[in-house]
């Protein structure tokens, strides 16, 4: 009978972890980070669930003769935002899972 109780405790622990993970994922959707490039000429806001929420481009950086530079700045700002979001998400989910590597 002791095995049955251990299994029940394990199931309760798994349910709590699942609930904590769902809560953490909701919090990540609400946590906003900002990526910047070009000394702040391009800014990207994203949440920690990897959704891009907005892009701000300073008109001074818009040069019709050099569209490639603007594209590079936008990509750099997006990558900066995603790196920040990924770090926060990793820390929060790691706290919930106790450092276990889970497939999500």
Properties at a glance:
58% helix; 2 helices; 3-stranded antiparallel β-sheet; 104 residues; alpha+beta
Mean pLDDT: 89
Order of strands across the biggest sheet? 1-2-3
Strands, count:
3
The residue ranges in which pLDDT falls below 50 over 5 or more consecutive positions are: none
Nearest-angstrom radius of gyration? 20 Å
Structural class: alpha+beta
Q: How many helix segments?
A: 2
Main β-sheet, in a few words?
3 strands, antiparallel
What's the helical proportion of residues? 55-70%
Which series of helices and strands comes N to C? HEEEH
Percentage beta strand: 15-25%
Please report the distance between the alpha carbons of the first and last residues: 34 Å
For this structure, the quaternary state is single chain
So what's the overall shape?
rod-shaped
Family: Belongs to the YbaB/EbfC family.
Function: Binds to DNA and alters its conformation. May be involved in regulation of gene expression, nucleoid organization and DNA protection.
Subunit structure: Homodimer.
Coiled coil: 7-34
